[in-house]
Amino acid sequence: MYRILRSILFSAVLATTVAWSSVETKLQAQQVTGDPGSPSATTTIDGKQLPPPDPAFGGVIKQSALDSKTWWPPRVVPPKQAPNVLLIITDDAGFGVPSTFGGVIPTPAMDRVAKMGLRYNNIHSTALCSPTRAALITGRNHHSAGFGVISEQATGFPGYDSIIRKDKATIGRILLDNGYATAWFGKDHNTPAFAASQVGPFDQWPIGMGFEYFYGFVGGDANQWEPNLFRNTTQIYPFEGKPDWNLVTGMADDAIEYLHRIDQIDPAKPFFIKYAPGATHAPHHPTQQWVEKIRQMHLFDDGWNKLRETIFENQKRLGVIPADTQLEPWPSEVIKDWDSCTPEEKKLFIRQVEIFAAYAAYSDHEIGRVIQAVEDIGKLDDTLIFYINGDNGTSAEGGPLGTPNEVAFFNGINMMPVEEQMKWYDVWGTEQTYNHMSAGWSWAFDTPFTWFKQNASKLGGIRQSMCVAWPNGIKDQGGLREQFCHIIDIVPTILEVADIPAPEYVDGIKQSPIEGTSLAYTFDAKNADAPSEHQTQYFEMFGQWALYHQGWLLSTKVNRAPWVAYGAANPDPLNNQVLELYDLTKDFSQSQDLAEQYPEKVQQLKKLFIAEAEKYQVFPMDASVAARIIAPRPNITAGRTEFVYTMPMTGLPQGDSPLLLNTSYKISAEIEIPDAGAEGMMLTSGGRFGGYGFYLLESKPVFVWNLLDLKRVKWAASQPLSPGKHRVEFDFKYDGLGVGTLAYNSMSGLGRGGTGTLLVDGKVVQTQKLDKTLPVILQWDESFDIGSDTLTGVNDADYKPPFVFTGKLNKLAISVDRPELSPADIAKLQAAQRNNASSE
Q1: Region Disordered: start and end of each range (predicted)?
Q2: pTM of the entire predicted model
Q3: CATH architecture of 84-547
C-alpha cells in the first residue's frame, strides 16, 4: 500500500494541490512541511530510488498566466530526527596510541568525545588504508568494494581493481540525495591511481561519490608542509609564501569555515562531514610548537619496552581492556629490546617517536577545533560524532631502524644505518624529511596486541579504538562497549539513526546489500552488555587472513613483516599457512593459541572463511606486495611508448604519467634560448625524496636523478647554450630485464643500472653509468611537470621551485623502450619460484 500511495503522490495525485493534501495524511513515513506547491514546501523521500523521481507538476496551466496557478516541487530534506554527522578517522594509529585508550600521547579531543558518549574497544579495520576507507564509506567489505589492497597496487580482479562499483553507493551519496550537505576533508585514498589526473574521469573522486565539497589530497599520504592539495578537482597552493603553513591546521581551518558557511546559508540543513587527516601516516610532519610540547614531557626516555608496559597498565586502570588480559613477551627475534640499543640508536629512536607523538597530539588538537566549531554554531547536541582512531594498526613500514625517507622503504631500502640517518636528526619531521619511526615504537603503540598495519591475521593490525557521541541520542555518557564490530558497521549505523533506508536503486542501478551491521542498538544503556549482532567477519591482506565467528578467531601465523616487501611471495596463501585459533571471549589480546586443542574447530572455521572469501570477492588471493605496485594498470599511458608535449603543464600524478623506471627511454626537448640566456625546468617528475629533472641552469643543460635523497647523479653541459634554437636530449639505456619479471612475483631484474647520455644538438656532452635505478616508485605525492616544478625540487642545490622555464619550449618528446621477457623465460621463472617454495 505504501508503494502505491507514494507512486500516486509523485504522479497523478500531484496534478492538483487538493489531491496532494488528501493523500498527505495517509503517508505516515513521509514528512511534509509548508503549503504544497509553495516555494517553502519540503518533503522527505522513501529513499528507495536515488535520486528520487521528479514529481509531476501540481499546479494549473491555462493559456494565460493570470488564469494559471504556479507550483514548485518540494525541496527534499532528511527526516526531522536525522542528526548532523561528523565522521573522523585518523591514519596508521593502533589501539594504544590515544590517551583515551591508555596511551601516553595526549588526545583531549578524543577524550571529550568519550566523555560525551561511548568508547568502543572491539572495532576492527582491514589492516590497510584504502581498503578500510572503502569499507567505511560504502558499508561493504573491502574486497566487495574493489579495494583488496591500496589503489597503487590495484590488479585486474574485481576484488582488487580499486574501483568502487556503481552498485555500491557511498554514504555521502545516500545522504546527499536525502537532503544533507556533504563534505570530505583530508585524505582521499579511494580514487584509483590511474584516474587521478585532470583528464578524469571524476566519478571516483569525492565529488563524484556524493560529496559536494572536497578539500584534501589524493593518495596514501602527503607532505604536510607542501601537499599535493585539491579543492574539489582543482589543485591549490595555500602554502605558497607561508613557511609555517601546515596542512593539519589548514584543513581544520577550511572545515571550520565550511561549517560556518553552511550554517549561515541554511541553518536547517544537516551536514555530513568525513574528516580524515593525514596523521599519523608517514611523513610525520608536526609543527615545532608541538614537537617542543612533547619533548618536554619526556614520555619515551625509558624506551619501547617500558612504554608498552606503561600503556598496558593504563589500559587496565581505565578499564578499556579486561583486567586478566595477557601481554605477550617482547618479540626480541623481530625487534631488539631497548636495553640492547646503542646510545646513538636510542637518541635517534627517541627523536623519531617524539615527532610521531607530536604529530598525533597536534592532529587531535586540530580535530578538537573542528568539534568546538560544531558547538559554536549551536549544533553539537544534535551531531553524531564518530572518532575512529586509525584505519589500521600502527605502521611499521619504517622497519626496525626507522627512516628519514619513506619512499626509500617502497624501493627496498628498509634498514638505513643509524649513522646515516643521524644526518637528518636536527631536521627530523621538517620539510627536509619524509620520515617514519622505528617499528619498536609501533609494536608498543599496538598494545595489548601484537604486530602491525598490513598484518590482517593479528589484532595489532586490525583492532582499532573508537569513541561515539551524540548528546541528543546517547545518554550513557562515558560508557564502554565491547561488542564485536567492524568499520563496515558505520554506514548502517548512520542510516538507522537518521531513519534513512539503504537505497534499492541509485541512478537506475540496483544496489548490492549493505554488508555491515548497525551499532545503533549499542547506544542504549540497556544494551551495554548485549550480545554482538555482528557475528562473522573475514580479514585478508597480502595473503595473510583470519576469520572471526561468534567469539572465535582463526588466523594465519604471520609470515612476513611489513617492512619486507621484496622476494618471492607465498604461492598458495590460502593453504600454505600455519593456522592458529583463539577464543577471544576469554583471550582479549589473542595470546593463547588453541589450534592443537581444537583441530575440528580449525577446519570448520577455515571452510567458513572460504565461503566468506568466495562471497566477497577475496579470490584470487595474492601474497605479493611491491610487485603489485609496478604491475600494469589501465591508466592513460597504458600501451603508449611515445609522448609529446608542446605547452607547459603541471600536476600530472605519477599514476597517469609516463613511467621511466625499469626501462630504456629518450627525452628530447626542442627549445629556443633568448639573447639574455635562459634557465628553468623543462621536465620533472617526483621531488626531494625521489625523482628526476631535466632543466637549464644558467643556460647549461642538466639532467639529474635523485635516488631517494641519498644520492644525486648529475649530467651537465660545461658550456651555456647560445641564443637561438637547440635540441637537448637525455638518452638512457637500461640493463635490466624489465617488468616481465613480475610474472612470478619477484623483484629481481628491477632497479638495475644503465647508461645515460646527455646530448646537445646531436653531440654527446656527457655519458655516465648508473649502478642502480629506482625499482618501484618515485615520490608519489609529487607530480609530472613540464615548464616548471611544483612542490619540492629534485635538486635543492641547483634551484628552488617553481623554477619556471624562461626560454621557449617548442616541443618535448619522450620515447620508452621497455624490455620484456619472452613467455618461455617467464615460464622458467615461475617454475623456479614453485620449486623454491616447495623446498622451503
Answers
A1: 30-54
A2: 0.94
A3: 3-Layer(aba) Sandwich (3.40)
